[in-house]
Design brief:
The chain is an alpha/beta fold and about 775 residues long. It contains 27 helices and 20 strands. α11 crosses α13. The termini are far apart. The structure holds glutamine and zinc ion (ZN).
């Protein structure tokens, strides 16, 4: 093991364990099958493994406190004693179960399975960490908030590593980003007003870390890549001036990631810190400027290896890119790092036994990225000769990927080039389509429907896994799924729903199912990435041009429709959602991959119509999630995202009704884009906001039809008919009756039939009541 002279950092590594050890330890503990000691023992072992692995590979700035049992934002809140009263904490040690109550509520969670939607009455809220698919717990702060250093996990973990003979650089979430991510409890107030109370707790922590032997800390302030107001900018100045006065001897590596510093660059460079980490994957152009403007005694941490994606790096290109910098910049003032923590990539490519060698040679997961980082460090310190072989291997892999026919499909590229505006436009305007659809469909007013999935019962999951293991034959599995579908159709007819769904029993997941049927996608066996807490996802990897060799859903739709005279909706996932929940190519723009997926979905839409479908739903649950971090970039994203949806949905005739579904209800700031999607019917989540969020549509005079959710599917509670009629009354204040559909908030796959049956019976009753009155 050679130690390079150019330091190599990781900023943070996956916490979940190579074999998801943390998940199983947590879930066993929560289920009462294992003790707290055994959970903590597993956690400790995982930390030690991570530290040793990094040391053995030659990483020299090894992070500590990047580990978390659940979430690092929650850890920070707990550390500073920001524990809302309802958790009953009165000071002193914070019990493990208090921590988990904040994470999960004390009755456990009840979600629709969709990240961001897991809810329990008493847990903290959860939301997306910047533009990743990681979700953090939102700290709740009150105006009279007090802070104390309630736990000193960063110190404990620093000492734990020290005991193993490993000197680490603790990672701490910065105070300004913390406050920006938090929310007010009760009345709204300026959270930054809490900064003066918060800083002494932070400096106490930093002081203790210094005393314990830390010479550097990494303080993460990813808010520096966002649009900041004057108050936030001033807060950053105050905070870092405070630290430089209180703990002057401690080096601070200020970490920014997920984008360019942009207009915050001067501010970042003016802060009294010893080091600055910048993301050079998302924002390679900022290197030149930073190198020109930064004081020469600043240590620059260069985020060169992509912490957000799974591709092997082009190391030669990285070295060439750095050349102008390293000519003028002292080598001892440089660190090599990933763009951000490696938390967002899977752990180890070596666990993949089913991916072929060629595809594997193009990929790098966290473990492989450690090697890449160290290689770059060595190449910079010792010249390239010493590492020539490894650089050559990387160059070969890059070249093979660039030329591969698995990546470049001339048919797809040709088709894409032939796309014109007309293909992304329905034949007639909505008014005309509506007339034709009305004649053809002949639906009652306030038509009732559901969002697509029915309960994925233990039986369904068991059959799927038996089939995957080869214990249940294809024919038997299909027969099983048909039975489920048939029962669902019969039951929907029986309770009197107007527009039926087949139930999605054949689907494990709304993206994976499609990825498995499309060319250009690969799936991993062990490529897990933390989504939140103990929930991990295995995003598909889009490696090549996307096309649809065969119909994906037509057969299931046909079968379902053959059982009934009522219309059954075709059910698809939209291109933007498939894109946003996958690892995507880095050799072409996201927008282009989106268009390729859109063409593939368009093929399916057209085939469904040909098979006789009169309604086709294209879900775009993740359209809003894809919004860029900076407002200035929103328009470009929304343009191509909406364009993708339109391309996917516009191949059909006027009388075919296109539905879409979105898993949220904040539409105010994107209502133009939603209108531009021009779906004939959109269903959204509105039950928890009591229809208030429909205002975006009514203020805009949105003309198309809308299904505002009247049943909160995140809760096991069965709503009464009266509650639903009340909600619909609120909707009628904002929309014309002729616009309104009646449906639940989202799919029902995580609910139990015992809940779904009475709830939907009540929902149909609510619609009938309204029809009688209207
Ligand atoms: N059709 C999907 C379902 O019902 C939609 C889910 C979603 O948008 N999250 O499960
Ligand atoms: Zn939804």
């Amino acid at each position: 093991m050679a130690i390079s002279t150019v330091p190599v950092a990781t900023l943070g590594v996956p916490r979940i364990g190579r074999r998801r050890e943390l998940k199983f330890a947590l879930e066993n503990y929560w289920a009462g099958k294992d003790t707290a000691e055994s959970l903590l023992e597993t956690a400790k072992r995982l930390r030690a493994e991570n530290w040793r692995q990094q040391r053995d590979k030659g990483v020299t700035r090894i992070p500590s406190n990047d580990f978390s049992l659940y979430d690092h934002v929650l850890d920070t809140a707990v550390m500073i004693g920001a524990i809302p009263q309802r958790y009953g904490w009165t000071g002193g040690e914070v019990p493990l179960d208090t921590y988990f109550a904040m994470a999960r509520g004390s009755q456990g969670d009840a979600g629709c399975g969709h990240p961001g939607h897991v809810h329990s009455t008493s847990a903290l809220e959860m939301t997306k960490w910047f533009d990743t698919n990681y979700h953090y717990m939102v700290p709740e702060l009150a105006p009279e908030q007090q802070f104390v250093l309630a736990t000193a996990k960063p110190v404990d973990h620093f000492l734990e590593a020290k005991e193993l003979g490993i000197h680490t650089r603790p990672v701490i979430l910065g105070p300004v980003t913390f406050l920006r991510l938090a929310k007010s409890r009760g009345e709204e107030f300026d959270l930054l007003s809490l900064l003066p109370k918060l800083l002494p707790v932070y400096s106490e922590l930093l002081g203790r870390l210094y005393k314990a032997g830390a010479d550097w800390v990494q303080i993460d302030e990813p808010c520096l890549v966002l649009d900041l107001d004057d108050g936030e900018r001033a807060a950053l100045e105050t905070a870092y001036r405070h630290f430089s006065e209180e703990v002057p001897a401690l080096g601070i590596m200020l970490a920014t990631y997920f984008g360019a510093l942009g207009d915050n660059l001067d501010l970042a460079l003016s802060l009294p810190v010893s080091g600055l980490h910048i993301d050079l994957v998302r924002a390679p152009e900022q290197l030149e400027q930073v190198a020109r403007l930064a004081p020469k005694n600043l240590v620059l941490s260069l985020g060169l290896i992509d912490g957000r994606n799974v591709w092997r790096a082009d190391l030669t290109a990285a070295l060439d890119y750095l050349k102008p910098l390293v000519c003028g910049w002292p080598l001892d003032r440089i660190e090599i790092a990933p763009s951000c923590s490696l938390l967002h990539v899977p752990v180890d490519l070596e666990l993949e036994t089913a991916l072929d060698a060629e595809l594997k040679s193009w990929l790098a997961f966290a473990t492989q990225k450690l090697d890449e980082l160290v290689l770059l460090g060595r190449a910079l310190s010792g010249g390239r000769g010493e590492v020539a072989e490894a650089l050559q291997a990387s160059a070969d892999a890059i070249a093979s990927r660039r030329k591969s026919l698995r990546v470049h499909d001339p048919l797809v590229e040709g088709r894409l080039a032939a796309v014109d505006d007309a293909m992304a436009r329905r034949k007639s305007a909505f008014a005309e389509r509506r007339r034709k659809q009305g004649e053809k469909l002949n639906l009652p007013s306030f038509p009732t429907t559901t969002i697509g999935s029915f309960p994925q019962t233990a039986e369904v999951r068991k059959a799927r896994s038996a089939h995957a293991k080869g214990e249940l034959s294809f024919a038997d599995y299909e027969a099983f799924l048909r039975k489920q579908t048939e029962a669902a159709i019969r039951w929907q007819e029986e309770i009197g729903l107007d527009v039926l769904v087949h139930g999605e029993f054949e689907r494990n997941d709304m993206v994976q199912y499609f990825g498995e049927h499309l060319s250009g996608f690969a799936f991993t066996q062990a490529g897990w990435v933390q989504s939140y807490g103990s929930r991990y996802v295995r995003p598909p990897i889009i490696f090549g041009d996307v096309s649809r060799p065969n119909p994906m859903t037509v057969r299931w739709w046909q079968y379902a429709q053959s059982l009934t005279d009522r219309p059954v909706k075709g059910m698809l996932t939209g291109p933007v959602t498939i894109l946003n929940w996958s690892f995507v190519r880095n050799d072409i723009p996201r927008s282009e991959t989106c268009r390729q997926i859109a063409l593939a979905i368009r093929d399916e839409v057209v085939d469904l119509e040909k098979a006789g479908a009169v309604m086709i739903q294209i879900d775009e649950a993740a359209l809003r999630e894809g919004l860029p971090l900076r407002k200035a970039d929103w328009k470009a994203y929304l343009d191509w995202a909406v364009g993708g949806f339109r391309l996917a949905s516009s191949g059909v005739g006027d009388s075919t009704q296109i539905h879409t579904h979105m898993c949220y209800s904040e539409f105010n700031d994107i209502i133009d884009a939603i209108a531009a999607m021009d779906a004939d019917v959109i269903s959204i989540e509105t039950s928890r906001s009591r229809m208030e969020l429909l205002d975006a549509f009514s203020n805009y005079k949105y003309p198309n039809e809308i299904g505002p959710g009247v049943y909160d599917i995140h809760s096991p509670r069965v709503p009464h008919t009266g509650e639903m009629t009340d909600l619909i009354k609120l909707a009628r204040k904002r929309l014309a009756d002729s616009q309104i559909w009646i449906n639940p908030d989202c799919g029902l796959k995580t609910r139990k039939w015992e809940e779904v049956r009475p709830a939907l019976v009540n929902m149909v009753a609510a619609a009938r009541e309204l029809r009688a009155l209207a």
